[in-house]
Amino acid sequence: APSDDQDTPKGKLTRFIFDLSLNHIGPLQLDGLFKGNRLDVILRTEQHFSQNMQAHMRRLYKGALDQTQINGDLSFQNRADSWVTIQEDTSKTLTQNA
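^ that's the sequence the OP posted. Answer follows.
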C-alpha cells in the first residue's frame, strides 16, 4: 500500500492504507495516520461491527499500544462513500534487480 510521508512543523506525518479481503469479514480497508507518538487507525468494512465488538477491538488496540510509547484511537466506518480510492502514481516506478 502506498504511504504518504510529509514533514510538518510538529514532526513527520505518515499515512498508510491497506486494502484487504478477509474470509469472514470480506473487504476491509485499514487507514492509519502516524505522527509523533500517535497512531490513529480507521477500519472500514462493508459489514457493521456491533457496539460490543467495536468496544472489544478498541480495548485490544489500546492494550497493544499501552505496551509502547505510542497512543492513538481506533475508529470504524461502514459507509461505502467513506472508502479511500488509491490512484497509482505512475511517476514513481519500483524496480527490482535480479
